[in-house]
Fold each of these.
Amino acid sequence: MSWKPPRVLTPRSILPALAVMLVLAAGAAAHANKPVPFGDRVAGSGDAEATPVNSQSVSSADLDLKVVGPGLEAYHKTTGERAWSYRREGAEALYLAMAGDNAIVVWDDGLVTSVRPGDHEVRWHRAVPGLADYLRADGEPGADKRTDAQRKQTAAQRAAAALHTVQREGSPWLAVVTPNLTMGLRDADGDLRYNDRPSNGCLYDPLRTVHTDYAVLIPRSCTNSSGLAVSGGITGYRLDSNGWATSTGPAATVKVLDASRVEIADGPIVPPKVFDTKAAAPETTCGNPDAPFAAVRPQGGCADPSAGPTADAPAATATPAAPAAPTATATAQPTDQPTAAQQ
């Protein structure tokens, strides 16, 4: 029978065990300081931890939601009392938009979150690469001379330009736009449905970006190797079908006309045109031979060119009655009505 003395633990053999214990202790301390993922803190009216109790009958229509101080505040519309507040440790809320009945919040650390107002549940979190840098505007001309108030104002303005919520029927979604990246997220679960980058030499322009109830339209500007603006374009994104792209000048603007139509203006030489984001097609102008067969006809239709003067006699009589009136001159141009509506 052999006998071996018990193993003596040397300082060298203790080091690995101590390292493991230190890592576990550090992790436990971090968890104690930030026990909720992403630093979420939802408090009730008395600053106590909010619970869904007694809030099941409350909906977003019953609450006023505001970005106040560092977070989101919800107030009862009937009484004006605070219902709950939402904070995140180490972050500040900058902008709020609704996607259906849910609140979407942009934070200064580049995180986007969704909250259900009725039971104040934080539904999902999504980090957007490059968003925090865009909001801070560090390194841009004049950034080092801005005051704290100006920095906060710039960050809030850019957060509003970056977030676009699309109220698609029954299934709202949202897009986040930065100069180098755009992402489309499904509101139901925060799932990433697309991400896209501009082509080489080009940048997206969040400040010119608009949205309708069906799509998000993002202008882009491009430069050559010398830094001179050479071209541009507008890209449309949808969640239920393929998007589209059109070439424009470097400073084209997009204006929302209604829930589905936008006007694209590309300088004084090119006439403005209307694009229908629901049909994903341009609106054909009156006088165009293809107008009767177009996918999107002009709003309000076009006058029948074969109609005789008799049918329009009252209007024709009224027009020359006041030839000097500016309003009469504008009314006497039915074929230009779509263009006039676009301006």
Amino acid sequence: MVVKDSSTSAPVRDWLRTHRDAPMRLFDRLITWFIADRHADYGFAIMRIASGSFLLGWLLLNLPIASRIWGPGSGYWQPYREILGYNFPFDLLQKAGPGLFWAWYIVTIALVVAFTLGWRTRIVTPLLFIAYTTLNGQNTPISDGGNYFIRVMLIYLILVDISRRWSLDARRRAAKDAPETQTGSVLHNIGLCLVVAQICIVYLEAGLYKVQGSLWQEGTAVYYPLQSEAYGVFPPLADLMTHWAAPVVIATYVTVLAQIAFPFLLFNTITRRIALLMLLGMHLTIAVTMGLPFFSGIMASADAVLVSGATWITIVTWLRTTVTGNRFARGLRARVRRRRAGKGAGADEESGTAADSDASRASVSQ
């Protein structure tokens, strides 16, 4: 009978004995991650500025027809609103007159501007969610995925410190040297987890839904929206993109694979960048060729939280250098400096002339 050495026959037991403190170390790292810092603050700043700009453009472009879409002129949608079952405060505009509607619309625009600039976002964000959802609920059939997605995001952004970077709140805090609390950091990072989870769910669900269709399985699905009259904004461009079969097949399969694999590609830096670039290309294509800039812009702005702060600092620095370092910008700054110097010299000359005249009057009086 052969007796095996227990020291060599129990590798699992040895590994567990060696790493018996691994759960506590993992728990400590998790707690530290939540309370030590507010992550993705630059990404949230980009998301705030980009999504706020798209919301503002959407409201301003629809300003001439706003009353017929969401105001008193949209009363024919009332049976549909009752089916949706919006309750207080999201039903305040259902029986509103022109005065209340336009006041609500203007206040919503003001909230979007404050949100974009990052002014008092802890108060502005929940108010914007109520104002925008109430307005959007007046006529949901004209909404697209971007409208619904930003409504969900606004709920999560209530928890997030979206004005920590590149905002008016950041300037005010720097002037007051206000400290950050651990409670605020925990809420911020919980909001970050919710935003990332929502993004992953949207892409994964969209990919799984697509893969069930025969057109996506055959590799021809991209062809039909590009050639449809409803989405055909630039027919010559659509014809060029669908002239050859290979690009259509590649775009179809890459879209499905990128959406389904997206949650799993986030665990590695290189694969995460590849996934974000593929989805950014998809959103740009949808915005240009299908005439859906609002939907694409809102979705792409949410993806910004998955880009590291160092990358955003590099991009912003490059843009700032490009915009302010070209020949036109340097010439404009030199012209402004010369004008200011000329005004300063003119003011000194006027003050000197006034002083000379005062001195002459004093000498005459003497």
